[in-house]
Every structure is written in structure tokens, then in C-alpha cells.
């Protein structure tokens, strides 16, 4: 009887090694040899499972995007009212600082999107999924009368995601230019104005 293939497990191991390497070294300084050494393999063995380093990093990006969006959806879904869901979304989208592994991964891999359509497509997916979640919350709040929107829901959602991205870049720098609490306060200030709701924390 043939032995079961270990390819899925080996691929998962390589994705994990690559994820850690991107977080620690960044994509600009990353080499195939770094992944191979981290996995205890030769560079040729890594290429057996992933034809190029780019193919491997695309899997890291795919996993990071899925994990980030799922976590945000879950954070919002656990709340009952639109205002509470909006608060949860805002708080789940900002990095905690330079050591926030998942957000750092997304920013690092997002730098490739300027030159590579495959990376750009996943970066667009990340943006669109977050806009979709925000839009649903905003429309629900408007429908129940909890929110009085100052613009259409999609425009407000896009602004919220853009603000998160901008503040997130500052928060993940080697020397952050502002504190997470400050970034959250500025996001909340915009959200309160855009929804005409005080967005008070009732927890």
C-alpha cells in the first residue's frame, strides 16, 4: 500500500515558516534560502512544493487576508446593535503596534501589490471585504433609525477602511508616530459624525 502523501502537511509547514520570516525580515530582504533554512530543507526541496518564492508568499497573503477578515466579521457578529457592531469593527481593524503580526504581514505583502497583479487582486479583496462588512452595518443602522448617515453607506465604509489603513501604517512603523488609542479616537470621531450617533461603549 502506498504511503499517504505528506505534501499538504509540508506545504502548510512552509507557509508557516514563510509567514514568520516575512514578519521578522520583511519581504524586501527575504530570500528563498531563508525559508529553506527555517524549514530544514534545501532550496530545491522548497521549490518542489512551491515553484517560486512568489507562489509561496501568495499563499501567506491568502491565509493572512482570510484570517484578518474572518476575525473582523466575528468581532462584529458577536454584538447585537448596529452601533455596537460598528464599535467592534473599528476596534478590530487597527494594529496594536509594530509587533502586531497579522497586520504587519498584510502591510508587508501589500507592498508587492504595486507591481504584481496577483498580489494586487488579493489586496483588493481585503479592501472590498472590509468595505462590505462596514456597509452592511451602516445600512442596518440607517434602516432601524439608529444611524442618520451624512453620506451613502458605501462612501462612509470606504473612508473608514482608508483611515484604518493610513493609521495602521503609522502604528506598525519601527517608531510609531501615534498611539493605538489615539488612532481609535480619531476613527471614532469620524464614525460619530458620519452616523450622527455618539457610539457610546455600553459594555
Task: Outline the structure in words.
This protein is mainly α and 203 residues long. It has helices at residues 7-25, 32-39, 43-49, 53-77, 82-93, 101-110, 117-144, 153-171, 180-195. It has a single domain, classed as Tetracycline Repressor, domain 2, CATH 1.10.357.10. The chain contains 9 helices and no strands. The mean pLDDT is 93.
In brief:
The protein is mainly alpha-helical. The protein is built from 9 helices and no strands.
Query: What fold name goes in the CATH topology slot?
Result: Tetracycline Repressor, domain 2
Termini distance? Answer: 58 Å
| Low-pLDDT segments, ≥5 res | none
Q: Could you give the count of β-strands?
A: 0
- Helical stretch count? 9
Shape descriptor = elongated
CATH superfamily: Tetracycline Repressor, domain 2
Q: What would you say the CATH architecture is?
A: Orthogonal Bundle
CATH hierarchy, class = Mainly Alpha
CA-atom Rg in angstroms: 20 Å
How much of the sequence lies in strands comes to under 5%
InterPro entries: BetI_C, Homeodomain-like_sf, HTH-type_TetR-like_transc_reg, HTH_TetR, Tet_transcr_reg_TetR-rel_C_sf
Domain HTH tetR-type: 8-68
Keywords: DNA-binding, Repressor, Transcription, Transcription regulation
Organism: Amycolatopsis azurea DSM 43854
Amino acid at each position: 500500500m502506498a504511503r499517504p502523501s505528506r505534501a499538504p502537511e509540508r506545504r502548510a509547514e512552509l507557509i508557516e515558516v514563510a509567514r514568520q520570516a516575512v514578519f521578522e525580515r520583511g519581504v524586501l530582504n527575504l530570500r528563498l534560502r531563508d525559508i529553506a533554512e527555517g524549514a530544514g530543507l534545501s532550496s530545491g526541496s522548497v521549490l518542489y512544493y512551491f515553484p517560486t518564492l512568489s507562489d509561496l508568499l501568495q499563499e501567506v497573503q491568502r491565509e493572512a487576508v482570510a484570517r484578518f477578515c474572518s476575525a473582523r466579521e466575528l468581532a462584529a457578529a458577536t454584538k447585537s446593535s448596529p452601533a455596537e457592531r460598528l464599535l467592534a469593527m473599528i476596534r478590530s481593524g487597527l494594529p496594536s503596534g509594530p509587533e502586531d503580526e497579522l497586520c504587519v504581514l498584510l502591510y508587508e505583502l501589500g507592498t508587492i501589490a504595486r507591481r504584481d497583479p496577483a498580489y494586487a487582486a488579493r489586496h483588493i479583496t481585503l479592501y472590498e471585504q472590509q468595505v462590505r462588512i462596514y456597509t452592511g452595518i451602516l445600512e442596518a443602522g440607517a434602516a432601524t433609525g439608529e444611524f442618520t448617515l451624512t453620506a451613502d453607506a458605501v462612501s462612509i465604509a470606504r473612508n473608514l477602511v482608508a483611515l484604518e489603513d493610513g493609521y495602521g501604517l503609522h502604528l506598525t512603523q519601527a517608531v510609531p508616530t501615534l498611539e493605538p488609542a489615539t488612532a481609535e479616537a480619531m476613527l471614532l470621531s469620524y464614525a460619530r459624525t458620519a452616523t450622527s450617533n455618539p457610539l457610546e461603549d455600553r459594555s
